[in-house]
Amino acid sequence: MNQIRILFIIIIAFATACTDEDNFKTDLVGFESLELGNQSYWNGSDSSGDFSIGNKIFANSYYPDWNTWSGFAYSNIINYSYYNESAKYAAYPSGGANESSNYAIGRQFEKIFIEFEKAEEQRLVQIANCTYSALAIKYGYGYAKKFGGRDGSDPDWFKLTITGFDHANGITGSIDIFLADFRYEDDANDYILSTWQYIDLTTLGTVKRLEFELSSSDAGTPLYFCLDNLKGRIH
Question: Residue ranges of the chain with pLDDT lower than 70?
Answer without folding.
Answer: 1-23
